[in-house]
Amino acid sequence: MKEKQEYDITQSAMLADMTTCLNLYRLSTPGIYVCVHPQVQLSENIRITPSLIAQVNAGPHKQCQTGEETGDYDRFLGPPNFIFDVFRKDQKDLYESRKSLFEQSGVIEYVAWFTLEQKPIWNRLTEGRYEVIEEDEKNIIKSSALPGLWLPVDAMVQRDMFLMLAGLQRGLSRREHHEFMDTVWKKKP
Question: How many degrees, rounded to 5, is the angle at CA 62 between CA 4 and CA 128?
């Protein structure tokens, strides 16, 4: 299975916003890959191109292999930790098929954004099944796949980059992010 998705302007704008947030997270979290439109090989015959991925590159949370490890720089092998996809309103079937595929493959968090919707669909793998995660009382969704990735839902809806980045900076300053970084990068004796 191989597919390529075309984007309209609103999808492209949301993808740019999320890429900015995930790239800031990457810059604050050495050992994380963030890629736009990467090829991901989930099994021998399933290769897919998500909008955006983030994957842990080392330590106990690592899930997929990179080109540096395999010598194949065309794709990632295995499920990334986090996938973000943007869809038009008429692409519910594509979302459902990807959701099922990512759930079966072990992607920890799969976030879908439909243009003209008022919030993301944030799926988190819990005991082998996706569970939709809602924002907390402060209207923030906190990632478990990428500890410290905090995204204010209202800011995402309004495309308010200042508030999105403020929420992210707050999450990056928390103990859970520092403890996560300790699992990715350890000083060698």
Answer: 75
